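Z., the sequence and structure:
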Amino acid sequence: MRIIGNAGKAREVQAVASGVLSTGDTVIVNADGTVSVVTGVDTVVGSEVVFSSAQTDTMSIHSVGSTNKFVVAYKDSANSSYGTARVGTLSGSTVSFGTAVVFSSVATSWIESVYHSNQDKSVFVFNSSSSGRGIVGTVSGTSITFGGTNTFSSVSMGYLALTYDSENAKVVVVYTNNNSDDGDSNVGTVSGTSISWGSSESFTTALSSHNFITFDSSNNKVVVFYRDRDDSNNSKAIVGFVSGTSMIFGSPVTYQSASVEQGAATFDSSNNKVVVVYEDQNNGNIGVSKVGTVSGTTISFGSQVTFFNGNTYMRDVTFDTDSDQVIIAYNDFEVNKGQFIAGTVSGTSISYGTATVFNPSRSDVINVTYNSSANKTVIIYGDYGATPAESGTAIATAPGYTNLTSENYIGTASNGYATGQAATINIKGAVDENQSGLTAGQSYYVQTDGTLGTTPADPSVFAGTAVAATKLIVKG
């Protein structure tokens, strides 16, 4: 970075542009000394849309590739508890649904689903008639059709969890085998509208429960989380990988020396980290998280970080690739409201912004998915504020974010510059003559989207004082 000026009277600075700068843009300095335009978006909360007008206590959701579609699957308590799915469409922050389609004409439970990118299919697993079953769906427009079911385990089971291994183009299901109480797994292979399963492999022979799972695409490993009831109900994580149609696992690691009943995990593909969220039963069930780093077939965790300092339950988590933030949706049991919050991973830790209410009533059985086409996170939940209570409801959300801090604003671009070009920036004391619509004598503040406004934003950053409609004295 080079200062331009005479005898301590510098009014400009020259630095390499990171991204395109336009004349008059508000500018920040980055940690590496480059400069960028101030950017950001406001928090988005759409309108609630009911997809099941009955009590909905079992559900899952996944996005469909790079489209603006997503699929919800649920137990339809108004129709003999049949397994049912609906295709959702995002238009901006508006959610709409196609017709409900039954995929299991028997009572179902523990429904989980994922998108299989290699085959462009939706994969569902569920428990029915004391067996674990899988089925493949094909989304077309606002509807979905299904192939036949295929059993992966002929035992009564619970705590199903499902993930997609993008390296091997396989799905991996984990569950508690109610006959042995082992934690078991199966690898599924999709071909067209059919799915076949490898043999069951145990990820633990301990009494396990409350399983959940994610896939680390940087290391091509599956990470399974579970409660070890043979070890004082401590909560553990274990790393595994697909080998053919089977799983191979490493050794478990304790991430919480207490029981976790409502945990969830996601993979931060920007920082190549696993993020696990859960309730701290040693501290009033507050909402907490840890960042995990996979190495080989083991995982290590950073320190515990609180995202909500109150009793929380029914939570889920996803990763927003637009803002590079982890999104947690949860029920605040202090006041019974559904809220979401965004977190940013740095190293082995994570920091959080301010929570936003998405539902002013109690929200149960929360599930989330990030849709990369619409850049929205869709939250589904049982809404206690609806009639009947716990109606299946969906809403589109997005976190507000900005690259502006209280310290990194340096001035305005004196001209237009391409990325990588040496850019001249008007700094403190310079008169920027490239603005419009200003009021002379008025103070202006940098807004989180880079525009100028007469009231402070959050963070509050003073841009300068106008001396004419087109002129701003930078930073006063």
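The longest strand covers residues 305-320. The radius of gyration is 25 Å.

Let me know what you think.
H.
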